[in-house]
Amino acid sequence: NAGVTQTPKFQVLKTGQSMTLQCAQDMNHEYMSWYRQDPGMGLRLIHYSVGAGITDQGEVPNGYNVSRSTTEDFPLRLLSAAPSQTSVYFCASSFDGQEAFFGQGTRLTVV
Amino acid sequence: RKEVEQDPGPFNVPEGATVAFNCTYSNSASQSFFWYRQDCRKEPKLLMSVYSSGNEDGRFTAQLNRASQYISLLIRDSKLSDSATYLCVAGGSGAGSYQLTFGKGTKLSVIP
User: What is residue B105's three-state secondary structure?
Assistant: First the structure.
């Protein structure tokens, strides 16, 4: 059972470039979410989805887009990368009110 | 703003010590509570869920006080392998409310 699979694990972007972080889960979870984690800031919610076709903004959505065309996949798109988006990104999935399972994270550096 | 506040730490304790972490949450409608463990440069992983009656898993004991909106984690007989950051989590405030709110974490270092 793969759980939550996140790719890539590492990425370096130049300012202004765009990219997509992939996230897939095989547990049939309704809820999927993206967090970023910065030193001293904890996990901050970027976007989340409660099911296919439904997405909503979290605490820090600016500069990011998401879509949820299937239950399994929840990609995160950086539209025009900025140095402030240098961070570690985690995808997570869960059932309603239950524990969240996390992907292994993506370490993104924007130069 | 819905928040979860934790002891800032870091906690540096010798092997064999007992250490307690405390956490408060601001959303009184929260219905599910967890402690997660995060090792350096790794993803958070569930340590244990927290129930109103309190629950124990080996050397770990979690308590929930809904009246005070307070959660605790007690680690007995600390091991070197317990060194990590511990995240307090509250969520599930109402039907269909999936969001989990994470505290910023408390770093524990167990010293030989």
Answer: coil
Q: Which of B99, B102, B107 to mutate to test the interface with A (most CBs of A within 10 A)?
A: B99
Kindly list the residues from chain A whose CB atom is less than 8 angstroms away from the CB atom of residue B96.
Answer: 50, 96
The 10s digit of each residue's pLDDT in B66-108 is 999 999 999 999 999 999 999 999 987 655 567 788 999 999 9
pLDDT in tens, B4-19: 999 878 999 999 999 9
CB contact (8 A) between residue B34 and residue A99: yes
Nearest to B8 by CA among B111, B103, B110, B109: B103
The secondary structure element, H or E, covering residue B70 is: strand B70-75
User: To the nearest whole angstrom, how far is the Cα of A97 from the nearest Cα of chain B?
Assistant: 4
Query: Residue A43 pLDDT > 60, yes or no?
Result: yes
Tokens of B10: 């870091």
Which residue on chain B is closest to A33 by alpha carbon?
Answer: B99
- The one-character DSSP state at B71 is E
